[in-house]
Amino acid sequence: EAKAAGKNTFCFFESEMAQRLRDRHRLEYDLRCAVERNELVLNYQPIVDSRTRQTLGFEALVRWEHPLHGRVQPDHFIPLAEQTGAICGIGAWVLREACRNAASWGDHLTVAVNVSVDQFRHGTIMTDVEDALASSGLAADRLELEITESLFIDDPEAVVTVLHRLRSLGVRIALDDFGTGYSSLSYLRKFPFDKLKIDRSFVNAIKDDRIAHGILETILALGRVLDLSVTAEGVEDAEQIDILTRMTCNQFQGYYFSRPMEAADLGAYLLRDFCATAETSRASCVALA
Ligand code: C2E
Ligand code: MG
Ligand code: MG
Ligand code: MG
Fold first, then answer.
1. Which of 32, 101, 230, 240 is the most exposed, fewest CB within 10 Å of its CB?
2. If you measure from the C-alpha of residue 2 to the centroid of ligand 3, how many angstroms do you get, rounded to a whole number?
């Protein structure tokens, strides 16, 4: 009896595993077709100046509208895309689409695009960026690439060459999720960054974690020494903003200001933003008079 039950259990697991493997293969296959099938969309989240509260630009964040599973978040499919090589096609599409959208915004607004380490490994990043800029007509200095520290694991020398070439186009480079990766402070001296983005886990802990607070102060001091602007990610409430403002953080991004939005909603957002900041400047003019 026990033997029979054991056998059944084994069959159950076997079929469950087989099922999972089939699901995964199916998802991998779907992901390879997602670009051609027009299933990817970009959402945009504002990045705000800490002093004026004006919107400086937007970060492009990809979503996958799967015909069966609905909206899939990037944390679920980007790792899969990286394992299967689909990331290069997706990355090229994201660059093109983000630049195309940004070209229709005001000239002062920038667009930040996340790039995967594989786009560097496969050597496609340079031509992808050049194509996206050429086809959209976007000025290079309005494009910011967000890279992560994982980029420095395999061949830092090769990476630094490409980063310099990208920068000579006029494109800016931000180091994303700073503080969570394979940080070696020596990279900050050797690599041509324009900006550090502090990971939201530190911002999250700022109120009740002395160590997180100290790390944030240190990162901001580092930013001043290296002449890099610093963006705090994942800002969700006014108290975090108060603390970060006192630490002279340059830029904010987070749900407190706005969740990521559809491209079509940016016009209305910018109008509200413009009226709000116009209101503030009028108020301070009145106060001065
Ligand atoms: P990231 O580049 O660090 O992007 C910030 C993430 O934090 C976004 O998640 C954003 O929606 C979320 N976020 C922003 N403000 C808040 C906040 O106040 N509270 C909380 N809880 N979350 C906040 P999302 O859109 O799910 O993206 C996750 C990650 O996926 C990104 O992290 C990025 O690493 C990756 N990703 C997104 N789009 C792309 C892409 O086009 N290409 C590549 N290679 N990776 C991408
Ligand atoms: Mg990012
Ligand atoms: Mg980040
Ligand atoms: Mg991230």
1. 32
2. 52
